[in-house]
Amino acid sequence: MSVLFCASNNGHFEVYSITAAGGTPRKLIGSNGQDAVASFSQDGQWIYFTSDRTGEFQIWRIPAQGGKALQLTRRGGRVARESKDGRSLYIATLPRDGRCTLWRMSPAGGEETQILASIWPFGWDLTEDGIYYENLPGPDGMRAMYFYSFATGKSTPMLDTPLRGGHGLAISPDGKTLLYDESSEIVADTMLLDHFR
């Protein structure tokens, strides 16, 4: 079993893997662009990732053992996750016109179909029945959480109170536990420098 992660080398992001037992990380993807936010296909044979190697962030896939990368999206893409049955790939875009959207396509590429018109690109995960997701933050930085049902095609609120979300959301394999990170405090220091010239 392997774990995927991204690391920055002097501001340049690249994708690595490491065995669950530890060891030396192996660089899987390298380009002149930023390569990040990687995930495995359900069968472990492919890795999906985002890259701006063409000048704009798009979703790509590469064989898990290494090889040539193939661009999948044309509308842009920041986060990609394969459905539990391996038949669909869901893609969250970066903000355009103040919105991030979620799309569905074949894992091999092809036509992209919009599923959600507003979503936080890093705050969502898939189950067999639907999608748990956070919307974009409001002026106060708070985000609401919803469940989108594949059966009905509708979203329902999950919480009475919005969250000050962070950068992730995950559902356990049995679909019974939701894990999310929350930014509870933002701190910045303003410094005054005398005689800096």
Distinct helical segment count? 0
Anisotropy-based shape? globular
Helical fraction equals under 10%
Biggest beta sheet summary? 4 strands, antiparallel
List how many beta strands DSSP finds.
17
From the alpha-carbon coordinates, what is the Rg to the nearest angstrom?
A: 18 Å
Distance between the termini: 55 Å
What is the element string, with H for helices and E for strands?
EEEEEEEEEEEEEEEEE
Mean pLDDT level? 85
Spatial strand order of the main sheet: 4-5-6-7
Low-pLDDT windows of residues: none
Beta-strand residue percentage: 35-45%
**Would you tell me the structural class of the helices and strands?**
mainly beta
Entry summary:
The protein has 197 residues and is mostly beta strands. Helices cover 0% and strands 43% of the residues. It has a four-stranded antiparallel beta sheet, with no helix packed on it.
Structure notes:
- The structure is a single chain.
- With 197 residues, this protein is mainly β.
- It contains no helices and 17 strands.
- The chain has strands spanning 2-9, 12-19, 26-29, 35-40, 46-51, 58-63, 70-71, 79-82, 89-92, 102-105, 113-116, 124-126, 130-134, 145-149, 155-157, 165-171, 178-182.
- The strands form 5 sheets. It has a 4-stranded antiparallel β-sheet, with no helix packed on it. A 4-stranded antiparallel β-sheet has the order 8-9-10-11, with no helix packed on it. The protein has a 4-stranded antiparallel β-sheet with strand order 12-13-14-15, with no helix packed on it.
- It is globular, with a radius of gyration of 18 Å.
